[in-house]
Amino acid sequence: MRDPYLLAAGLLTGLAIPASALPHLSIVLPENSRFLWDLKQGSQAIVSTKIINSVDISLPQLSGQAFQPLKSSQATVGDKNVSSVPELSSQGLPAPTESSLNASTQATGISLTSGNQLYYQRLAALKTGQIYTRLDSDNLQSLWESIKKRQLTYDDWKSLLALEARAIAQGQGSNHLSILVGDSLSMWFPKEKLPAGKLWLNQGISGDTSSGVLKRLGAFSATRPDVIYVMAGINDLRKGASDDTILRNYRRIVRRLRQAHPKAEIIVESILPTRLPKISNSRIRHINIQLTVIAKQEGANYLNIYSWFTDMEGNLRSELTTDGLHLSQEGYDVWRSALQQIEYKVTQRQN
C-alpha cells in the first residue's frame, strides 16, 4: 500500500447531461456569494425574478494532464478557529422527477457485492494507472477470484483513500474536482452515477463515524476541489454517540475543511432517514436542524434532501434501500439528481 503509483492521463471525457436530468432549478444567490440549498418537494424554479428552464448541458472534455509519481508525504491540517463568515440564504430546489431519475447513466461492468471487492478494484485501478471513479471495470471480473480473502481493516481503507487522494493532488491539473466524504453511503456511491465532466474523489469508508472522518481530512488536503460533500452521523447513532458529540465533530470538520480548502464550496448534507427501529428518525431530523445552524455559522452550505427519501410515515422509502439503511440503485438515483443540480449551479458560478 505504501508503494507509489502513477496515474495515466487518459481520463474519461465529459458527457452531455440530458435536459430531463436537470429539473427546474430554484436558487436565489445572495450578494455575499454563499448559499444554502434546501431541496424540498414541489419547490418552484425561480432565480431572482426569472425562471430558469431545463437546459441541455454539454460539459467540456477533460484535459489530459500528465500525472507525476506519488510522494510518500501526507499533508496535515491544524485545528484553528476561522473568522466569522456571512450568513446563508435559503431557497429551494425541486425534488427529482421520474424522468430525471430514469435518465441516469446505465451501470457498466460487473456488480460489486462486498467491500473486499470494491477495495481490490480500486487498488487495481491505481496499479493500472487510473483512478477508481474513472475506471472501466469490464476487465476486472477475475480480480478478486485470484486474491486470497482476508479481513480488511479500517487502516487498509484509510491507506487506499490516501493513495487515491495523493494521485488526484498530483494529477488534477486544470480539471475540476468534487469530493465525497463520509461513511458507507458515500463509499458505495456508484461511480457511473456521479455527474460527468469533472474528477471525483470518493473518501467514504464503511462504518466510519463523524470522529473518524474528522481525523482523516488531512489525507486529501493537498487537492484543489471545487466542492466537498460531507455526510456522516448514522454510525454515530448506531454506536450510541450523543447528539452533542456528532454536532461538535461536524463543526470541527467544517472548520478544518474551510481552513484547508478556502476556495471550495463545502456542503453539509442532511443525514438520511432509515427504516431501523433502533434509530429514531425524529432524532435525525433534530440533528439535521442543528446541522443547518452549524453550516450557516461556519461558512458552509447545507443540502437538505432528507424529505426526498421519506415515505408517508417518515421512514426511509422501502424502494430506496436494500436493508433499511444502505441505499439501493434507485436511492442513489435520487441522491444523484441532487448532485447534478448542485454541480450545475457551481459550474454556472464558475463561468
How much strand? 5-15%
User: What percentage of residues falls in helices of 4 or more residues?
Assistant: 25-40%
Run of helices and strands:
EEEEHHHEHEHEHHEHEH
- Shape, per Cα inertia axes: globular
Helices, by number, come to 9
Low-confidence stretches: 1-91, 102-110
Q: Report the structural category.
A: alpha/beta
Mean pLDDT figure: 73
Whole-number radius of gyration?
A: 19 Å
Query: How would you characterize the largest beta sheet?
Result: 7 strands, parallel
Strand ordering within the main sheet = 4-2-9-8-7-5-6
Structural account:
By secondary structure, this protein is an alpha/beta fold. The chain has nine helices and nine strands. The strands form two sheets. Strands 4-2-9-8-7-5-6 form a seven-stranded parallel sheet, sandwiched between helices. Helix 4 (184-187) links the parallel strand 5 and strand 6 (199-204). The protein is globular. The termini are far apart. The relative contact order is 0.16.
